[in-house]
Amino acid sequence: MILNVWTVTAFFLAGVGALLAAAAAWIAIQGLASSARAHPERSGAGTNEDRLHLLALVLGVLAGVRLLAWPHFYLLLKSYVPELSSYGVMCAFGVTRIEPELVLAAQWIKPVLLTCLGFWLVHGVAVQRQTTQPYFARYALALLLALLALLDSGVEVTYLTREKIGSPVTCCTQFLDTDAAQGASQPVAALPGLSGVNWSADWRLYAGWNLLLIATCMLLARPRARGVTSLRSGFPLRVIVPSLLALGGLANLVLTRWIWLEDVAPRVLQLPYHHCVYELLTDVPALGFAAALMVAGNACLLWPLGLPSDSSVTRSIYALCAVALATGLLIVGVHVA
Question: Within 127-198, where are the H helices?
Fold first, then answer.
């Protein structure tokens, strides 16, 4: 185990997250027991309301703690580079080659957990005005999220306690340790891109897709805009449009990862053969912020699923997604230009 200030703070965040998750799980279990009674009305609606408010507070704080732990994890990886440099590690990606399964799990669980926590909290706000609330469903989902948060903290603690010194890393800055990957002789601008043409075509695809999502979100965020009322109220359009936007956001996450890996990282770092998103995010704080905005803007497109299409909550979500995507795209464009 490598012990430094980043490791200590990671232990702290994981411990606080685990305690909050355990508290949320206990509250959710009590709520499930109360909701599953033969005569749930005898337990009192006020009791369930108070318990849900307390649960929302705990899950909200948990979301904040795990939100801090997400970028902190990448800074933790970067802090290990000096200690592991003698074993072939040259950047944060090289650190991920040690215990890669744990690192991969930690990287995936955090955004999934944050997206689901946001979904639970947003839907809780949306159903407050309903005369009857799905208490059992909300408690069950909260329990699953609490268990996922416990898993997140457990995976991070396990990774922190594993011994990392002494594990050789044969390839740090390339994803594939092949002759073709090691023998690239052309600068990144001339390498074939996702569209099979060149970098500029890839960038046009990336920018165009984001602008399409931004424009659609802005259109749906307008209150009772002309031409949009029928789009929101008509079935199945009120189901199809949010679903297509959610799928478009997930596709944009895949596209964003590819463009940042193949084009943005080498250009911004001024290293044509260095395809390392990890170093890009930790060495250029503005792009780290842009990455968070792009992930949030795309992932939050999942939140309106199941919500009334013309509600103020839904419109606010689409407005925030449009702002996040536009800001992230602008930051990336400024650095690449």
Answer: 135-161, 179-182
Please give the radius of gyration of the chain, using alpha carbons only, rounded to the nearest integer.
Answer: 23
Closest alpha carbon to 318 in 255, 251, 249: 249
Residues 8 and 115 in one domain: yes
Whether 153 and 255 map to the same domain: the answer is no
User: What pTM does this model have?
Assistant: 0.82
DSSP H helical ranges for 170-284: 179-182, 199-221, 229-233, 237-259, 265-268, 277-283
Q: Indicate the pLDDT class of residue 133, thresholds 50, 70 and 90.
A: low
- Is there a single domain that holds both residue 76 and residue 217? no
Domain boundary pick from 119, 141, 173: 173
- Check pLDDT > 90 for residue 297: yes
Instruction: Provide the domain limits for residue 302.
Output: 187-337
Residue 129: predicted pLDDT: 58
Q: pLDDT band at 84, cuts 50/70/90?
A: confident
**Residue 180 included in any domain:** no
In the chain, pLDDT over 90 holds for what percent of residues? Answer: 44
HSE-CB for 274 with a 13 A CA cutoff = 16
In the structure, what pLDDT confidence band is assigned to residue 40 with cuts at 50, 70 and 90?
very low
Specify the residue for token string 């990886």: 77
Please report which residue ranges of the chain form alpha helices under DSSP H: 5-35, 45-79, 81-84, 92-96, 100-126, 135-161, 179-182, 199-221, 229-233, 237-259, 265-268, 277-283, 285-299, 312-336
Mark whether 151 and 284 lie in a shared domain.
Answer: no
Calpha distance 312→221 (Å, rounded):
9
266 shares a domain with 164 = no
Query: Longest Cα pair distance anywhere in the chain, in angstroms?
Result: 75
For the record, the structure tokens of 49 come out as: 């309301």
pLDDT-derived band of residue 177, with 50, 70 and 90 as boundaries? very low
